Amino acid sequence: MKKLLTLLFLITVYLSNGQTWTGLGVGTSAGIITIDTFNNKLYVAGAFDSAGGKAMNAIASWDGVNWAVVGSAISFKKNAFINALTVFNGNLYAAGSFDSVDGKPVNNIAEWTGSQWSWLGTGINGTVNALTVYNGSLCAGGLFNSADGIKTNNIALWNGTNWSAINSGIKSTSPNNFGVEALIVYNGNLYVGGGIDTAGSIPVNNIAEWDGIKWDSLGAGIIGQGSLVGSQVKSFAIFNGNLYAGGAFEYAGNVKAYNVAYWNSNAWGCPGTATGNNSTEINSLIVYGNRLYEGGTDIKWGNSYLEYWNDTTWNFPNGSGVWGHPTGSFSHSVVNAFGILKNSLYIGGYFDTAGGEPANNIVEWNDPTGINDLSRAISANIFPNPSPDGFFTFQFNNPSEFVEDDCSIEVYNLLGEKVRSTFNIQNSTFRIDISGQPAGIYLYRVTSEKGELVGSGKLVIE
After folding, report:
1. CA distances from 284 to 184, 229, 240, 290 (A)
2. Is the peptide bond before 317 cis (omega within 30 degrees of 0)?
3. For residue 348, which of 340, 356, 112 has the smallest C-alpha distance?
4. Who's near 115: CB < 8 A, 6+ residues apart?
5. What's the chain's Rg over C-alpha atoms?
6. Is the pLDDT of residue 3 over 50?
7. What Å distances lie between residue 223 and 204, 253, 276, 317, 403, CA to CA?
8. Distance from CA of residue 310 to its chain's centroid?
9. Which helix H or strand E contains 239, and what residues bound it?
10. CA angle 368-345-429, nearest 5°?
């Protein structure tokens, strides 16, 4: 019993002290709008002209240690905005508001192969706000009416060769015409969010569903607005089987849900009690561990907003969170984007401190309390566990889940020290050897090639 209490104490100390904020050198010179992971690097983009003190316009990569340029340092002209990043057909796509890349004329969307930039026909004739992959094509949404000369309304598909429209697209006739601001695939269908009121010929309220044949509304949709912003959907995430929408609103259907709500394929719900207030908007959502993180801004007070939902309660990360008022013309501190690399959560936006420490517009958040929490559960049997000698056999129930993702396993002791790594898992059954370690509790993580936490748990040596 005494040994068990000691182990529980060690776990408590480890979990309470392990949460850390880490700045990325001197950060970026201006705000970050979007983040994604590509080729084991974190790509950040926005409206800055330097990262890590080096000249880089609008986009940069971070390998966990150093900043690097993407293409040439002046790939994008000054005043270019990159609003969205995503990976499609093995390459990284960037979209926003720009007219050239590395001296080549492009319109608002470009493809990065890992070594050079290329263009997608003649591009898109307006601002692109969101990207996702749907049904084997790249889907772009924003505020535009043509792609490569093909008539579209705020949404279009790129199949790797040609652009096409989706039905008659998405429209808005209201004064708050934000166009399409968020895209996601949920249960095989495409979901579109923004400041919109028509999908095809169907009236919608800021959110719509495309099933491959027709558009549909999601009940009464997202409605209501605060005194400072028009109602809109700005972000999506899938958490515990439900589709979460974040933005600036007061109701989802007939459910009171300030700025974040979930859709379970049939009806709207609110996570916990209605959170926030009508001066707060949610710009980004992500699942990290078994938690849904939301980031945005309190418009009224000009403070950034960062919180997580563990399917029971809303909580703030350890310390004073992400705050500060960056210098320059932008008056609010904002959380705009999240990304995951090597088990850490990265937070980007407009701010200058995190956890009370300097952090210019981007910070790494490492939370080992999530070691047993999954962003996408991989099912496995582990035996023997406890083990008398430190040898464990992992038997995955669905091998395709980890073979396709090029998963790896890392094992840590309770001090957070890595004691074993296994990369490029190729078989459904394999052995982990930590026989040289003393008796006790160890924590393992299964991560995908993109750094997504997809499996975790405890190993015990008796």
Report:
1. 13, 16, 17, 17
2. no
3. 340
4. none
5. 22
6. no
7. 10, 7, 16, 29, 42
8. 17
9. strand 232-239
10. 65
Residue 369 pLDDT > 60 = no
- Residue for token digits 């309190």? 298
Lowest-confidence segment of 1-15, 185-199, 326-340 by average pLDDT: 1-15
Cβ atoms of residues 184 and 191 within 8 Å: yes
Over the stretch 277-313, which tens digit does the pLDDT of each residue have? 555 789 999 988 778 999 988 755 556 678 888 878 8
Q: CA distances (Å), 243 to each of 56, 78, 251, in order?
A: 35, 36, 16
Q: What is the pTM of this model?
A: 0.77
Chain centroid, CA 116 distance in Å: 25
At CA 87, angle to CA 289 and CA 235, rounded to 5? Answer: 55
Cα 126 to Cα 96: distance, rounded to the nearest angstrom: 9
For 403, which DSSP code? H
Chain segment 129-171, per-residue pLDDT in tens: 999 999 999 999 999 999 999 999 999 999 999 999 999 999 9
Q: Write down all domains in the chain, each with its CATH number in brackets.
A: 20-369 (2.130.10.10), 380-461 (2.60.40.1220)
Judge contact between 68 and 59, C-beta under 8 A.
no
Give me the sign of the Cα torsion angle 354, 355, 358, 363.
negative
Which string of b and e fits 106-128 if b means at least 16 CB within 10 Å?
A: bbbbbbbeeeebebbbebbebbb
Q: Exposed, middle or buried by CB within 10 Å (0-12, 13-18, 19+), for 400?
A: exposed
Average pLDDT over residues 345-358: 87
CA distance 335 to 283: 7
Q: How far apart are CA 82 and CA 285, in angstroms?
A: 18
Burial group, residue 421, by CB count within 10 angstroms (0-12, 13-18, 19+): exposed
Helix (H, G, I), strand (E, B) or coil at 55: strand
